[in-house]
Amino acid sequence: MSPSDKTALVTGASSGIGAVYAEHLAARGYHLILVARRADRLEALAQTLSQAHGVRIRSVVADLENDADVGRIEAVLAEDDGIRMLVNNAGVARLTPFAKASGHDSQSQISLNVVALTRLTRAALPGFLARNDGAIVNVASVLAIESLPISAVYSGTKAYVMAFTRGLQSELAGTGVRVQLVLPGVTATDLWSEDVSGVPLAVLDKDSVMSTRDLVDAALTGLDDGESVTWPSVEDMQLWNDFDQARARLFGATQRGLPASRYRKN
């Protein structure tokens, strides 16, 4: 199929990274299903992109922290055989010490960053595999490999996305279904505010902040180049190769049936 015959479903599409993904994919000729909570922003974006690129766009207002709303998007993914790409972009960060965080803040991150992403991926996969054609883009974070004093839950959810995606990549090797893991650093989105993450963008080092356009440009270039793991802000990819090789060696070292000598006192 050419892009003009394909549809991409993008979550968290009303602003930030998701909106830029929608713009870029529309420019590539993809029809779009845009999912987000804010109906006014979704409709405005849909109208703009439809007029600019002549593609069909469907807006679906849904809160992916809500079980029933996730179910509605699962049904869309299962029933629309034109969908060839799923961009799991929707996510939330509540950056505060865990002992001070509310139960709701922790649950909202797990519901959106982990549960919704997993369910939507599972809904898309049978059709992708049946057609032997599809791409899943899972947006994680560099905090998948680092936990800060304020990011225990957020880092935990993004570490899940990383491990889940890497497992899927192994599972789907040899099929026509591709899965890309994208690990953004600090990106200029609505997440960085007192109301959302609790950390305003203004307090961050401006030299560490990437624009959403640069982030998505890099991620899509990585996808085009066949990358399974894309670190948009990392210049030296040998760092990732070394990290991944060390991880594999450490795992290999666990495959023995005796405690390490340091634990054998007698």
Keywords:
single chain; 266 residues; alpha/beta; Rossmann fold; 7-stranded parallel sheet; 7 helices; 7 strands; globular
Would you give an account of this structure?
With 266 residues, the chain is of the alpha/beta class. The chain has one domain: Rossmann fold, CATH 3.40.50. It has seven helices and seven strands, in the order βαβαβαβαβαβαβα. The protein has helices at 16-27, 39-53, 67-79, 103-131, 152-172, 212-224, 238-253, and strands spanning 7-11, 31-36, 57-61, 83-88, 134-139, 177-182, 229-230. The chain has a seven-stranded parallel β-sheet with strand order 3-2-1-4-5-6-7, sandwiched between helices. β2, α2 and β3 (57-61) form a beta-alpha-beta unit.
TL;DR of this structure?
The chain is of the alpha/beta class and 266 residues long.
Q: What CATH architecture do you see?
A: 3-Layer(aba) Sandwich
Q: What is the number of beta strands?
A: 7
What's the CATH class, please?
Answer: Alpha Beta
Domain count: 1
Helix content: 40-55%
CATH topology: Rossmann fold
The main sheet comes to: 7 strands, parallel
Residue ranges: pLDDT <50 for 5 or more in a row? Answer: none
